Structures are given as structure tokens and as C-alpha cells.
Amino acid sequence: MIQPSDSKPEPRTTSSERLGSLSHTDESVRCPHPFVSLIPIVVLVAMMALTISLFGGDALGGGTQVSLLVATAVCIMISMWGYHTPWKSFERGITDTIASSAISLCILLMIGMMSATWMLSGIVPTMIYYGVQIMSPTFFLAATCAICAVVSVMTGSSWTTIATIGVALIGIGTALGIPECWSAGAIISGAYFGDKISPLSDTTVLASTVADVNLFTHIKYMLRTTTPSMTITLIIFLVSGFFFTNGGSVHISEYTEGLGHTFNISILTLIVPVITGIMIARKVPSLITLFASSMMAVVMAMIMQPDVLLTVAEADGTDFAMLVKGAFITLFTSTGVDTGAAAVNSLVSTSGMAGMMDTIWLILCAMCFGGSMVASSMLHSLTSVLIRSIRGTVGLVSSTVATGLMANLLTCDQYISIIITGSMYKDVYSKKGCESRLLSRTTEDAVTVTSVLVPWNSCGMTQSTVLGVSTLSYMPFCFFNYISPIMSIIVTSIMVKTSKTDKHE
User: Fold this and answer.
1) What pLDDT is recorded for position 7?
2) Which pTM does this prediction carry?
3) CA distances from 97 to 29, 204, 372 (A)
4) SS3 for 264?
5) What one-character-per-residue DSSP string does 199-226 give?
6) In degrees rounded to 5, what are phi and psi of residue 335?
7) Mean pLDDT, to the nearest integer, of 443-455?
8) I need a labelling partner for 121 at 20 to 30 A (CA). Which of 50, 144, 423, 497 fits?
């Protein structure tokens, strides 16, 4: 994830304290029965099914938001009328939940700006132009996963990785004849590898902090599950690449001709990504980095792609004011450029900040649902069932994984999910005699990487919007993201059996 708290005076402490309050149940609130707690979830699932059947791919344009608000209303009505939960508890829960995502919403707007300016300034077209001639369809998926993994480890940010190199890679994959869902799966798998183990990642720091584990002890212990998960993922992508060996020969010439005809393809445009990378390496706050990168791309567009900006502005002359108008339009709304090829036209079209509004709207509605589920103690009621059923260390880890997945589904935010999961199980692990680093590792395995697989989670909504591929489409191909929680249980089981054998001997 992008570090959303970078712009605050005390990012780690302030964020943890505010989010930590969400993991504790208000003592004045009665805890509903688990079956009662399932009612809002059943309503949400039913409403989502109805919405998808009615609107199909346009469900995110409003239908899903309404479904989330209806489920929120059901949760609040049950709690207020049946359990006398005060309205102030819901106000506080929803406010705290939305506040925890406020910087992320601003970052989304910056990503919309940057994605558009990087496209029309020729940065992404240049990457695609040379990338399709260098990369082989056979090894594209494995290489994409590896590249995104390296970049995300260096930046500590899956959001930045996907919004920059990920956008270019999905364009390269399309030109090579690779289905977008496969490319998106490889990009997300690699990006969340770094998000999970990089010492620069806020989710890595947060998970270790909640469990009271040294950061590098946490990272080292995670390698036991993360390394085999990524190895299996790379093997799957490598083998799958042999099924895409001949699909892009026709597409490559179509894309290179279309891009070369429309844009001034030049290595000079890559100055902006290089400076952006330096800013990230120097830990410049994310909002500043993204905004500065967008402005540099605007300047690059005026220098290298004036004709494109004039086309966007629908200007006849070459007046500087029209270049500025074209830049403004690129930043805040949808643009389209005719390259002479329909497929390339679709690739280079942009949506600016306006393209992020549906996602922001959806995140706000999702935060209302998540905040109400926490404030009503319904989430606590459901997870308490899992805790009571724990049998042994493997059962404890499995229960932690299930709780992390449930938290991602219900709170719609990975930060809150990490806090809730870690806080709920901290004392349980201690009483069971299990190490704190096992809790921090399992929390990361279960929460960080699976958040992007939930369509209404802030991560799932963001990456779907940035890559232009629906969450349900790329989900089956994010192998690393669902192998990780499974691997967490498998490795724990092996370690327990090995420990028992050693004791017996």
C-alpha cells in the first residue's frame, strides 16, 4: 500500500491510535447473537447479487453503493431497536473508519491525475512501444510478477507500483496478446509481495506493531511462508506463458504503429519516472510525490506532445493557452486520442480525477458499512465464534486467517482489518503459548494480500479502477494473494508436526 499517513506529523502513532480504537468494543453496547450478526451480511450478499444481475458491469456506478448503504441501515436498525445501541456509537464508528481512509481518498485523486498525465505525456506509450519489442509473450507473466515484486519491495507501496509500472505492463501485455485479467493478476501478485515484506510498507510496520514484534524479526519470520508462495506463483506464471506464445504477433505492429503515429516516442520522457523513483527512494510523502510527478508529466507533455494536448483541448491553433487548457482537461476529466487503431485508442484513453469518483463514492459507502459492523459489535460477535472453536496451534492460525478474511469482507479496509485481527488474538496467542511473531505473520498472510481480492474493499476497488480490470476478473489469477493464507496454515502444520516429532525423539 501507499503510505497514507506520510503527510501527518506523527504518521505511525496517530494512525495506530485512531485505528486501534476500532478494535475495542464499546462496553455499553450489547453483543448480538452470531446469527443476528449475519443478517446484514446476508442482506448485502442478496443486494449485491440483485445489483449485478440488473446492472452487470455497471454495478459499481451506483448499484453497489446503494447495496452497501441498505446493509448499513439494516445493521443500525437491528442494533438500535433490538440491542439499544446509541446512535452516537455509530456516528463515532463511521467517522473513525472514514477518517482512517481520508488520506487514501486524496491519494486516489492524485493517482487519477498521474495516470492521465503519464499517458498523454508519452511516458507510458514509450514504455509500451519499447516493451512490446523487448519482452516475450512466453515469459511476460513471470517477468511482470518479478518486476513488480522488486519495485514494490523498493518502494514499500503496492498502490504506487500498480499505478506506475503496472499501468505500462498491462498495456504491454495487451499488445502481446496476453488477456488483461492474467496481466493484472501477475502485476497484483508481484506488487503485494513487496507490500507484505518491505520494511518501508505501512502494513508491514502496522502488523508488527500491533503484535509487539520487532519489524525485522517479523519480516524474517514471514519469509517462511512468503518465499514458497512467491516461488509457486512464479512457476504458475512461467508455465502459463507457454500458452500465450503466438497471440501477439499481429498486435505488436498495430500498437507500435499507432503509438508512433500519435506520440513523440522518446527516451527523454522517462526522465519523469526516474525522478519519481528517486523521490520514492528518499521517502518523500506519497501525496507530494504523486502530485509532483503529475506536474512534471504536464510539463513533459507541453514539450514533447503539444499536438496531443491541442487535440484534447479541441484547439485549431497553437496558442499556449490552449496547451494549458489541454493539460487541465487531462488532469480532471476523460480524454481520448485517435491513433488510427481502435485497440490503441482504448489503451491511451484517460479519465483523470473524475475517473476515480465512482471508486471514492464506493469506498465511502463501504466505510459506512464497516464502521457500523464494528460499532454494533456484530463483527466481534462473529469472530468470537471462531475463537471459541480453536483447537491447537494449527486451529489458532486457521482461525486467525478466517478472521482476517472476514474483517476484509466486512470492514472494507486492510488497515482496520490488521488492527482488529491482531488486537483480538494477541491475548489468545499469549495464553496458548504461541509466539507473537506467529500472530504478526499470520495477520499479514491473511489480511494484507487478500484485501485486493474483495470487490468492495478499498484495495480491490482502487486496483480495479487503476488497471481497468474488474476485481472478479483478475481475482482467479492473483495466485500469490490466495496461496499466502493457505501457505500460512500449511507451514504452521508442518512446524507443529516437526516439533512433536522432535519432542518424541
Assistant:
1) 37
2) 0.72
3) 18, 20, 9
4) coil
5) TT-HHHHHHHHHTT--HHHHHHHHHHHH
6) -135, 155
7) 90
8) 144
CA angle centred on 399, ends 397 and 402, rounded to 5°: 110
Return the closest-CA partner of residue 374 out of 22, 71, 103, 47: 22
Q: What sign has the CA pseudo-torsion 300, 304, 310, 311?
A: negative
Residue 12 falls in which region: left (phi positive, over 0), alpha (psi -120 to 50) or beta: alpha
pLDDT of 268: 92
- Rounded CA-CA distance 217/222 in Å is 9
Q: How many whole angstroms separate alpha carbon 14 and alpha carbon 20?
A: 10
Q: What are phi and psi of 398, to 5 degrees?
A: -60, -40
Grid cell, residue 8, equals 501527518
Q: Which of 190, 142, 196, 182 is CA-nearest to residue 165?
A: 190
User: What Å distances lie between residue 3 and 7, 62, 120, 170, 219, CA to CA?
Assistant: 9, 28, 27, 24, 18
Residue 499 in this model has a pLDDT that exceeds 80: no
Cα distance between residue 32 and residue 29, in whole Å? 9
SS3 of 224-249: the string is HHHHHHHHHHHHHHHHHHHHHCCCCH
Q: Whole-angstrom Cα distance, residue 384 to residue 427? A: 13
Coil vs helix vs strand at 480: helix
CA distance 126 to 81: 60
Contact 156, 195 (CB under 8 A): yes
Question: What pLDDT was estimated at residue 76?
Answer: 94
- For 213, residues 6+ apart whose C-beta sits below 8 A from its C-beta are 436, 437, 439, 440
Please tell me the distance from the alpha carbon of residue 445 to that of residue 427, in angstroms, as a whole number: 19
Q: By C-alpha distance, which of 227, 226, 228, 207 is closest to 436?
A: 207
Question: Quick one: which H or E segment has residue 44?
Answer: helix 34-55
Could you tell me how many helices (H) and strands (E) the chain has, helices first? Answer: 26, 0
54, 88, 199, 303 from 220: Cα distances, Å: 48, 43, 11, 47
Residue with cell 485505528: 19
